[in-house]
């Protein structure tokens, strides 16, 4: 585990387009001070592991001061770190150590709202005349903006909640304990820009901006994707480009791709946006054994401005999001992937990847092969690289937030605290429990999922075309076969062929435009027969896939 | 007669060549005296001036066929002919002759010619699975259908596709260019539906998954097809509404002429199918059809509508091939008919698919898998019909009243099955069991319901 003193992807201002992200729940990764809760120093302690795996950028879930009613997305002070997680000095150390290893660090930032425990809100609710009176969105009744949908349909009945102290209703798009900030107030918008500057100053490489579509409210609209919201994000971008070049803004906007592209602006808004709908479609394609769920969503994904990038993922800390599929498909996803109703929540499914695919390693590998070769930068969720499971009995979204399984030792090697002190119990079931699935064992076993993942990331890194190349689907008559070509400006061409079916499948691919080239399989560097003028014939094992580099003989 | 454009000796090669083509209507090669060359022309010269593209029209017992013949000098290799012996006409002492659609150089010349120089392509490949025409794909962007057997007057595929596209119907591949000569539609260029898959292949994917995974209810299988079937039903209804707009609605003619014809065709078909024994159920069925007091209006229909004629693409379903059933006379194919002709054509196709995959399995599995086959068929029938019947406006094109609807749909479903039986007995006897099963079911009244 040698330390490389250069930053991965060098000083390329577009580094994020070629990066693999790794999402970390600070609380759940590693406990460096034996108090039963993961901390920032714990992440620093495990940087060598992430570097070995081939991670380019760490994405930290919220680490700010918070009453933790919503996993830290209810921030009560933007300028301090939750004491359980450590200190500002720990954060500085993490960033420095990551940079030394050629990795970057981005962090969640919730712009839309604060915790109701935030001193700003506590002051704001006192009366209608205090200095922070206009920092939140208040109203005498709860009838305004009926067009705005309810996002947490399981938990909330209205976007308005009455505050008896102030005698008014306050606006919240999420939980009632998360009042929305009032961005029409210049003091708020200026202060939030100060928050951005503060963290970039200490060395963070950017932000994943949580829930950005809802910053502003306007009469007669659903309050999503408003022009004012885009204007404000452009203002942040301008500041970042001016004072912190090379830092990245990643927007979380769970919308249809044609609406999400607006968050790229014309290359002057966010650098990256998550592509939400492609994710459930990947699962659906594998279940249906046909490519259309995926190809149709990619076909309706507009192109994005130069220098921008999609963020794509299989699973994350939230539920498998189904807001972007049609009702009929949503019912289908529920019935396929959430046979147990406890797995449902809001509009998604709260499961980890391995149990979602019934621990079928072939499907898990196929889905990762898709993730690593689709247009966008892949985001891995901690633990998925070792096939971790979930605990659906933990309630809320904790089922996928159990401690990282480092070893078969006590507490999964996550913490040396007493078991009872752990923030959540580690998984202990015979299939996914830490005795069966942990980093130490998978490091020793070179045929493990972990080693497979590392090899895939190595290959991906050798071919920037996976991050930056054009994407073009190749017509295969066999609907179970998904084939596409990534083409880079540097002349690198990679052909990906995937079998979405449980059965072996043949495919004839019209590759005449590459006639004369030789496909070289990228994992083993095995040359395949030259492409001729006839359709190129390949056979694929169940859930099999190939990545071929197409080279001149 | 412009046969002077055809080199000596070539016309003698034509009869045997015809006999080897899938698109030739007869089962055996025609005799030399049955074939006459009625027109011939040199369309283009390329290569070093020694590759020629020849166009030939032949008459075989009153049927017109279009041939595109390539000429290359003897001794020059043509690797693309490897494995295509049937496409070679033969050679003279100077040159050899073969089907020009296999020659990418000449095929690209043909595209240029057919589109009047508007379209050029770098690559071309033939579409392999085809019966009655020859299709070429250019750059995965355009498809050219070269018609082989030429009807009198306009080709219905061209006619309908152009009309639907002009009416703004989004589910046909947009027409790009039509090549007409001597009163015939000879070739038709359309946008190619890149990444598309035939509905048939998609249905088989669903069925193979179901038969292997085996939940009792196909709704629980990963490869459930019902959502696709429902969207297909919607697209079908939209197609009919646009057809009705473009070609008109015959409100009364069907009742007096078309419908009695359907009944008598069924009567004959059943007699032929069941032989001497005329079961009581058949008589009852005919009685029931005669009891239909109004079979509803007629419109121009697709007339050969099944899973092989629809394509799933990233933009949803597309419909292809408006030529009608190849074994029926053209006049009959163009006659307006009930929408149920197409609807039941698709329903029949669901049974075909389910049974076809069943035949892939082992005999001892038939009991278990047979139940799944029927469950799959019923589920997708219902989904298709729910999409079709739920489309606003479609009511105006259907018979009024559930009795009439059930009667008309039953008639067309049976008529189609009887047509299939004749076809399978002639060409694919192993498959005859599929329509036979359906006919038994329809006669005994145990067929899945029409829903709606």
Write the layout of secondary structure elements.
The complex is a heterodimer of chains A (553) and B (452).
Chain A lengths: L20 E4 L1 H4 L10 H6 L1 H7 L3 E4 L3 E2 L11 E5 L6 H13 L3 E7 L8 H6 L13 E2 L20 E4 L4 E4 L14 H16 L4 E5 L16 H17 L4 E4 L5 H4 L11 E3 L3 H11 L3 H8 L9 E5 L6 E2 L5 H11 L6 E2 L2 E2 L3 H4 L4 H13 L3 E5 L57 H6 L4 H14 L2 H4 L1 E5 L6 E7 L5 E7 L5 E5 L8 E4 L4 E2 L8 E5 L4 E7 L2
Parallel strand pairs in A: 1-2, 1-16, 2-5, 5-9, 9-10, 10-11, 11-12, 12-16
Antiparallel strand pairs in A: 3-4, 6-8, 7-8, 13-15, 14-15, 17-18, 18-19, 19-24, 20-23, 21-22, 21-24
Helix pairs in contact in A: 6-7, 9-10, 13-15
Chain B lengths: L13 H6 L15 E12 L4 E10 L2 E11 L14 E4 L3 E5 L4 H11 L9 E3 L6 E6 L3 E6 L1 E2 L5 H11 L8 E7 L2 E8 L5 E2 H15 L12 H22 L1 E2 L2 H22 L5 H11 L7 E2 L10 E4 L2 E4 L10 H5 L5 H21 L5 H24 L12 H26 L5 H12 L8
Antiparallel strand pairs in B: 1-2, 2-3, 3-5, 3-9, 4-5, 6-7, 7-8, 8-11, 10-11, 12-15, 13-14, 15-16
Helix pairs in contact in B: 4-9, 5-10, 6-7, 6-11, 9-10, 9-11, 11-12
Describe the structure.
The complex is a heterodimer of chains A (553) and B (452). Chain A is α/β, with parallel strands linked by helices and 553 residues long. Chain A has 16 helices and 24 strands. Chain A has helices spanning 26-29, 40-45, 47-53, 88-100, 119-124, 186-201, 227-243, 257-260, 278-288, 292-299, 327-337, 353-356, 361-373, 439-444, 449-462, 465-468, and strands spanning 21-24, 57-60, 64-65, 77-81, 104-110, 138-139, 160-163, 168-171, 206-210, 248-251, 272-274, 309-313, 320-321, 344-345, 348-349, 377-381, 470-474, 481-487, 493-499, 505-509, 518-521, 526-527, 536-540, 545-551. Mean pLDDT of chain A is 92; it is low at 1-7. The relative contact order of chain A is 0.10. Chain B contains twelve helices and 16 strands. In chain B, α6 (253-274) packs across α11. The longest helix of chain B has 26 residues, at 402-427. The A-B interface holds A 287-290, 292, 295-296, 298-300, 328-329, 332, 335-336, 473, 475, 477-480, 501-503, 510, 512-513, 533, 535 and B 80, 104, 122-123, 125, 137, 139-140, 194-198, 201-202, 205-206, 208-209, 212-213, 220, 222-224, 227, 312, 314-316.
């Amino acid at each position: 585990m040698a330390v490389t003193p250069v930053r991965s992807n060098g000083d390329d201002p577009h580094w994020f387009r070629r990066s693999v992200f790794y999402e970390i729940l600070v609380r759940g990764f590693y406990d460096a001070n034996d108090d039963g809760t993961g901390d920032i120093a714990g992440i620093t302690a495990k940087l060598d592991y992430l570097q070995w795996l081939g991670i380019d950028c760490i994405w930290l879930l919220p680490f700010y001061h918070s009453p933790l009613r919503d996993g830290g997305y209810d921030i009560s002070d933007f300028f301090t770190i939750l004491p359980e997680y450590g200190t500002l000095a720990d954060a500085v150390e993490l960033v420095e150590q990551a940079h030394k290893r050629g990795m970057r660090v981005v962090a969640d930032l919730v712009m839309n709202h604060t915790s109701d425990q935030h001193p700003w809100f506590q002051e704001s609710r006192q009366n209608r005349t205090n200095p922070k009176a206009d920092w939140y969105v208040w109203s005498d009744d709860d009838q305004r903006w009926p067009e705005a949908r309810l996002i947490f349909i399981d938990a909330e009945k209205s976007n308005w909640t009455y505050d008896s102290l102030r005698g008014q209703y306050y606006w919240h798009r999420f939980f009632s304990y998360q009042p929305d900030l009032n961005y029409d107030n210049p003091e708020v918008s200026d202060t939030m820009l100060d928050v951005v500057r503060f963290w970039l100053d200490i060395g963070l490489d950017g932000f994943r901006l949580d829930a950005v579509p809802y910053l502003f409210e306007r009469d007669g609209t659903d309050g999503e994707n408003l022009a004012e919201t885009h204007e404000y994000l452009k203002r942040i971008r301008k500041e970042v480009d001016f004072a912190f070049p090379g830092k990245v803004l990643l927007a979380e906007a769970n919308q249809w791709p044609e609406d999400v592209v607006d968050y790229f602006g014309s290359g002057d808004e966010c650098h990256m946006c998550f592509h939400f709908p492609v994710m459930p479609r990947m699962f659906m394609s594998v279940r249906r054994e046909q490519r259309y769920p995926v190809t149709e969503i990619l076909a309706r994904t507009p192109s994005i401005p130069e220098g921008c990038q999609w963020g794509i993922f299989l699973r994350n800390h939230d539920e498998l999001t189904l807001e972007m599929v049609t009702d009929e498909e949503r019912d289908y996803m529920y019935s396929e992937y959430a046979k147990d109703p406890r797995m449902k929540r809001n509009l998604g499914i709260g499961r980890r990847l391995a149990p979602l695919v019934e621990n079928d390693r072939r499907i898990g590998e196929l889905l990762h092969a898709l993730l690593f070769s689709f247009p966008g930068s892949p985001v891995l969720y901690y633990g998925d690289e070792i096939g971790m499971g979930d605990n659906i009995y933990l309630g809320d979204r904790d089922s996928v937030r159990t401690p990282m399984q480092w070893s078969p030792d006590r507490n999964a090697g996550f913490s040396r605290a007493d078991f009872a002190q752990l923030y959540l119990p580690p998984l202990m079931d015979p299939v996914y429990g830490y005795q069966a699935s942990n980093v130490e064992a998978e490091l020793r076993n070179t045929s493990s999922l972990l080693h497979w993942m590392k090899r895939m990331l190595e290959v991906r890194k050798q071919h920037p075309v996976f991050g930056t190349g054009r994407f073009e689907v190749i017509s295969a008559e066999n609907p179970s076969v998904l084939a596409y070509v990534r083409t880079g400006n540097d002349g690198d061409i990679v052909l990906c062929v995937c079998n979405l079916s449980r059965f072996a499948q043949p495919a004839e691919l019209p590759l005449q435009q590459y006639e004369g080239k030789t496909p070289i399989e990228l994992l083993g560097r095995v040359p395949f027969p030259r492409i001729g003028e006839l359709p190129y014939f390949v056979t694929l094992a169940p859930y099999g896939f190939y990545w071929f580099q197409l080279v001149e003989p | 007669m412009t046969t002077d454009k055809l080199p000596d000796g070539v016309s003698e090669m034509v009869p045997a060549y015809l006999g080897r083509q899938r698109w030739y209507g007869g089962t055996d090669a025609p005799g030399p005296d049955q074939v006459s060359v009625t027109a011939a022309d040199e369309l283009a010269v390329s290569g070093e001036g020694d590759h020629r593209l020849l166009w030939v029209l032949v008459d075989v017992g009153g049927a017109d066929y279009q041939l595109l013949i390539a000429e290359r000098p003897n001794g020059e290799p043509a690797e693309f002919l490897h494995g295509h012996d049937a496409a070679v006409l033969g050679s003279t002492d100077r040159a050899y002759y073969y089907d020009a659609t296999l020659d990418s150089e000449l095929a690209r010349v043909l595209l240029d010619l057919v589109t009047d120089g508007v379209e050029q392509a770098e690559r071309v490949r033939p579409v392999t699975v085809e019966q009655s025409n020859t299709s070429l794909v250019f750059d995965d962007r355009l498809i050219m259908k070269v018609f082989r057997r030429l009807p009198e007057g306009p080709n219905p595929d061209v006619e309908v596709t152009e009309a639907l596209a002009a009416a703004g119907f989004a589910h046909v591949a947009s027409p790009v260019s039509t090549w007409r000569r001597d009163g015939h539609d000879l070739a038709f260029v359309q946008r190619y539906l890149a990444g598309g898959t035939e509905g048939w292949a998609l249905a088989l994917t669903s069925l193979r998954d179901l038969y292997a995974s085996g939940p009792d209810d196909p709704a629980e299988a990963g490869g459930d097809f019902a959502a696709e079937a429902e969207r297909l039903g919607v697209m079908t209804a939209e197609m009919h509404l646009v057809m009705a707009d473009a070609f008109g609605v015959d409100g009364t003619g069907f009742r007096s002429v078309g419908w009695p014809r359907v009944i008598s065709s069924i009567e004959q078909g059943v007699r032929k199918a069941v032989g001497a024994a005329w079961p009581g159920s058949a008589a009852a069925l005919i009685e029931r059809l005669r009891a239909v007091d109004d079979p509803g209006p007629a419109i121009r229909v697709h007339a050969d509508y099944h899973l092989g004629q629809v394509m799933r693409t990233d933009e949803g379903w597309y419909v292809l091939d408006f030529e009608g059933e190849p074994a029926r006379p053209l006049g009959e194919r163009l006659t307006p008919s009930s929408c149920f002709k197409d609807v039941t054509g698709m329903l029949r196709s669901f049974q075909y698919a389910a049974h076809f995959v069943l035949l892939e399995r082992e005999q001892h599995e038939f009991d278990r898998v047979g139940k799944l086959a029927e469950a799959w068929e019923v589920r997708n029938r219902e989904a298709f019909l729910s999409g079709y019947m739920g489309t606003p406006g479609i009511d105006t094109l259907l018979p009024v009243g559930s009795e009439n609807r059930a009667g008309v749909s039953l008639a067309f479903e049976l008529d189609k099955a009887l047509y299939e039986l004749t076809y399978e007995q002639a060409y694919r006897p192993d498959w005859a069991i599929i329509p036979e099963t359906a006919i038994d079911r329809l006669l005994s009244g145990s067929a899945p319901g029409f829903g709606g």
